[in-house]
Amino acid sequence: MLPQDIPQSQNMQTNRRWLVVTLFTLAITLGWVAAVLIHAGGDPKLFALIGTKFNEHDPAGSVGYDGQFSYYIATEGIAASPKLDIATYRYQRLLYPLLGGLLSFGQTGLAAWTLIAINVIALTATTGLLAIWLERYQMSPWYALVFASWVGCLLVIRMDLNELLCMSLGVAGLLLILDGQIRQMRLATLMLALSALTKDMGFVFIGAAMLYLWFSERRTALLVGIGASLPYVLLAILLQVTFAKSNIGIYQGPPLSIVPFAGYTMAKSTVELWLMVWWLIIPAVLLGGMAAFQLLVKRQVSLPTCLVLGAALWVIYLPGASAYDLIAAYRVAAPIVPAGVLFAGSLRQGRLLLGLTILWVPALLQVLLLPGFFF
């Protein structure tokens, strides 16, 4: 069983359609963000959805949303802990707010802007990387826009969340692994480690890298896996010592279940459950089954195949805390979208790419029901 990805040296394209796709994504995203900001009177903190319950310690106040915790950490660092619902949980997802704070050069007024900018860049970069990857498979790079238009990705930008940076680093790390050179492998390990430090969802990409490398270079697979996971573990231990009273443990995320689809029983309504079934569960099961067939029956290994398997399992075992909230489910389960696009591209299946486009792009229409999403 050998990896089936085409070496980079045999994939250099003379055209640069991926660049057009990237610039198009940037222009459309900036236009939307600008429209939201203009409608909000130019206040970037609108994106953080700050509530008074945590910001002003008002038990009866508004709850806000998770992006507010990134804003607190970006502006106050370790001093933000009294404003966090669970300090170890929020500080474990360190990279996004840390970058927001560093790029603002300590200016509190700039942090809200840098958090938005990071997510816009992350969406654009990930779309560009997917377009490059699709061109290597001699498929249209415009299918990368399926990711750029996924409702979960736009929710991340609109709410100052960290999933886009996590996926951007993860996809970059996997793309570097295709080269296979030692220097590139070290950089890939760093990218994957940073992905995990942005959100534990990064382990989807770490797992894909390890599975792909296992069939050709088992020692390298272990080194990449250990190297990419160790910073996350060390940070978790440090946070556990610092906030010992929280008594959460090494894993800082929502409780995991060993029962497939158990998390979805927590969905707060039947309508939301069926929306998750249609846009998340069914694609994950179908794509995961196809990937398992490629790997176990046809014995063909590719990075997209391994990524689809990891992303499908991530969807199947989505924690109840994420499956309860439709917004959370769309963004936390988002790796299935780039994984599916790349998997279809690796198979040269234009019909499958078209089918995924028809399936996932219309999900964006749901945001019309969210006040303030567009304007």
Question: What does this molecule look like?
Answer:
The chain is mainly α and 375 residues long. It has 18 helices and two strands. Helix 1 packs antiparallel against helix 6 and helix 8 packs across helix 16. The relative contact order is 0.12. About 2% of the residues have low confidence.
List keywords for this structure.
mainly alpha, 375 residues, 1% strand, globular
Tell me the layout of helices and strands:
Blueprint: E1 2-3, H1 17-39, H2 52-55, H3 67-76, H4 87-92, H5 95-103, H6 108-136, H7 145-148, H8 151-158, H9 163-177, H10 182-198, H11 203-214, H12 218-242, H13 270-297, E2 300-301, H14 303-316, H15 320-323, H16 326-332, H17 336-346, H18 350-360
Parallel strand pairs: 1-2
Helix pairs in contact: 1-6, 3-5, 3-6, 5-6, 6-8, 6-9, 8-16, 9-10, 9-11, 10-12, 11-12, 11-14, 13-14, 14-17, 17-18
Characterize the biggest β-sheet: 2 strands, parallel
Share in helix: 55-70%
The string of secondary-structure elements, in order, is: EHHHHHHHHHHHHHEHHHHH
Shape: globular
Determine the mean pLDDT: 91
What share of the residues does DSSP label as strand, in percent? under 5%
Q: State the secondary-structure class.
A: mainly alpha
Number of strands: 2
Q: How many angstroms does the end-to-end distance come to?
A: 52 Å
Q: How many whole angstroms does the radius of gyration measure? A: 20 Å
Low-confidence stretches: 7-14
The side-by-side strand order for the widest beta sheet comes to: 1-2
What is the helix tally?
Answer: 18
